[in-house]
Amino acid sequence: MVGLSLYAERDTWLHRLHPEVKIAGALLLFVVFMAFNDPRYLGVTFGLSLSLASWAGGHRLMLRTWRFLALLVIMSTALWAVFLDDKAARDMLPTWNLLGATVTRGTLLYGLAMGLRITGMVLGGLALIASTRPEEFSYGLRSLGLPAGLSSAIALSFFLLPMLVATAFTVRQAQEARGLELRRVGLGGRFVRSAAVVGPVLGYSLRRADDLTRALEIWGMGTRPPTYARQRPVKTKETALLVVAGAAALVCVAARLLAGYGAILPRL
Fold first, then answer.
1. Domain map (residue ranges) of the chain
2. Of 18, 65, 185, 231, which sits with the fewest C-beta atoms within 10 Å of its C-beta?
3. In degrees, to the nearest 5, what angle opens at C-alpha 218 toward C-alphas 216 and 222?
4. Secondary structure of the chain: what % helix, strand, coil (to 5)?
5. Taking the complete model, does pTM exceed 0.85, yes or no?
6. How confident is the model over 22-52, as pLDDT tens digits?
7. Radius of gyration over alpha carbons of the chain, in Å?
């Protein structure tokens, strides 16, 4: 279960940042991604997200997620390139016919931009998760003004999702040890037999949810403000870093809205 967690135990500048600064910085990074739809501009921002994810989780995080990220880029690019319904993009030459689908330079560039945008935002989120403990994430959300219940619920998802995945692996191995074949069967047979895995996992999840509810009630959740073991004010240099990031995001938005930089199409 621990191995399934995306948090990376490292001593980097990103890990040492105040969680409030990291959450606000991630939101500003998402604003920059939404400002542009030119793959050249988004490529630079994508490189920044990739660097942050590398700093946060190192090679372990990249090795665990590169297949998913590569598939995300390819599928996003292909879907937007084929199905984009925009006259300006469809009128851009040259035009190609790929497997019966019409793709133009405009739809291809916009599709690549969307692939970089979505994957870059995922990388930004991975950098945040890999460098922030769940309790620190909850503390950061509370510092930004979110209600205690909502911030605690979001932080709990960091614990429960790896636990659910680990339970699914354990149940599957137990069922296979009892003779259930899930690997060398067709897709239909695998779907039917997966009920032997899904049922116990759901039952275990409901029991864990009930135990968690009772534990939260015993701890007084919702009756008084939560306390955190690690609390400290935001440092001056962290505030300065956040101001610089906010100014950079504002410049990017202004460059797009006022001067048209970073746009191959007028749409987002």
1. 1-132+235-268, 147-230
2. 231
3. 55
4. 70, 5, 25
5. no
6. 999 999 999 999 999 999 999 999 999 999 9
7. 23
